[in-house]
């Protein structure tokens, strides 16, 4: 039996949502380099309904999302308790996602409301852990403006909103990645939306998936704070057989198209927030890894610096990834539900044979 470890290169299903064919990322046929300039709400609409909205539909859809960025009172009460616990924020989010599926007539919750609640819950977790008061949604602001406002307590500039909107779009979907495939497996059992999302959050938490952005910033922070030589640090880590987070991708051998866009945003924000030292370290590392190992930065590499420049703590980086990827998770859950086929692959048994139990 031919076995592909990790399902590498195995096509398990078809999708109309996104594609990485020929190492070129597209959303419903639109190149990521172009669609990254759209608004966040446009891309959400595109991934869910397979077409871009006209201005009237966009306005209505944006208001629908914003109006639903409110959490049930019982969810807030429990969040005020569990979010202060010492566990990793992704563990808090895992529990919160499951909790959202137990309140306020959730049987009738649809993707717009679910996405809005997830964004607000993530912002609330960050505020509670920072001992800051929760921020109410402002109906006059867009989804991204509200998300930033509810996290930082400051109304973002149009420039920051535009940049962060691009960041969220670039993370919105990525074909059958580990967390998305996990969501689809659960969806194939006809389980509810929140169960699918809870499973996806669990998958995203791992350092080989969404958690990589935290490890990237830990590396940058160590090099900067201890005034280490970036190249010598990398050489030492590799000599110890340790993985360098933020480099390489199973699909993009010639460079992650998302990283090219994020690099420009990271550079701009680094200058504006006086974090050039981190960006310079990143460039030294990137130059060495490309020259020595032909490895390019991936989506996690520059995202780590962007989140730091916005004022986020590294422990919350993967939650922000989850906020963005919830868009894609919901799109794939909807698509899988339409297929109504249980995902149940086979395996090749390679254990002991011909054993017998004597009575």
> What low-confidence regions span 5 or more consecutive residues with pLDDT below 50?
none
CATH fold topology of the largest domain = Citrate Synthase, domain 1
CATH superfamily of the largest domain: Citrate Synthase, domain 1
Mean pLDDT: 93
Helix count from the secondary structure assignment: 16
What is the CA-atom radius of gyration, in angstroms? 21 Å
- Tell me the fraction of residues in β-strands, as a range: under 5%
Termini, distance in Å?
A: 34 Å
Tally of extended strands?
Answer: 3
Outline of the structure:
Helix content is 58%, strand content 2%.
3D architecture notes:
One of its GO terms (molecular function) is citrate synthase activity. The structure is a single chain. By secondary structure, this protein is mostly helical. The protein has 2 domains: 23-206 and 314-339, Citrate Synthase, domain 1, CATH 1.10.580.10; 212-310, Cytochrome P450-Terp, domain 2 (Cytochrome p450-Terp, domain 2, Orthogonal Bundle). Helices cover 58% and strands 2% of the residues. It is built from 16 helices and 3 strands. The chain has helices spanning 32-35, 40-49, 55-67, 73-82, 89-100, 111-129, 143-152, 158-170, 178-187, 193-205, 212-225, 230-239, 257-272, 276-293, 299-310, 317-339, and strands at 18-19, 26-27, 30-31. It has a 3-stranded antiparallel beta sheet. Helix 9 (178-187) packs antiparallel against helix 10 (193-205). It is globular and about 55 Å long. The model has no long low-confidence stretch (mean pLDDT 93).
